[in-house]
Amino acid sequence: MHLIDDGKQAICLPGATLHQLEKALRPIKREPHSLIGSSCIGASIFGGVCNNSGGPLIHRGPVFTQMTLFTRMFEAGAIHLVNHLGVSLGDDPETILARLDRGDSGQRSSQTSSKRQPL
User: Fold this and answer.
1) What is the dihedral of CA 89, 93, 95, 101, to 10 degrees?
2) 21-64: per-residue pLDDT in tens?
3) What's the total number of domains in the chain?
């Protein structure tokens, strides 16, 4: 999990927890959307996005995924990595994934890249 844009947004890797997000946001005096106990038991950020956009948290506004990095498989069997994160991470899948693993999230792109990179 890496904060970007001066902590206005976060790149959340698989398995990142609400507790990790809460800890990362504390020094910049921000809080994650969900704080009602679930961050203490290892709840994932992804689960929080899926489950905590209503109920008592509705006054905080909706929680959602705005950008993503995903793979797409085409009929011919080719698999491509698609970067819709809005950050410049490189031009090939190995570089993109290695930079995300290191927390080197690059610079915000002026537009979201929709380049497809063959895997």
Assistant:
1) 80
2) 888 989 998 887 666 555 556 777 777 776 655 556 666 666 66
3) 2
Are 90 and 96 a contacting pair, CB within 8 Å? yes
Q: Which structure tokens are listed for 25?
A: 């946001």
Note whether 46 and 22 are same-domain residues: yes
* Edge-first strand listing for the sheet containing 79-84: 68-73, 79-84, 116-118
Q: How far is CA 84 from CA 6, 15, 23, 59, in A?
A: 19, 20, 26, 28
Regarding pTM above 0.70, the answer is: no
1 C-beta neighbours (distance < 10 Å), count:
16
Average pLDDT, the chain: 77
Give the strand pairing for 79-84 and 68-73: antiparallel
Which residues neighbour 26 within 8 Å (Cβ) at sequence distance 6 or greater?
A: none
- Tell which residue, 38, 59, 41, 40, has the closest CA to residue 50: 38
Range of the domain at 90: 68-118
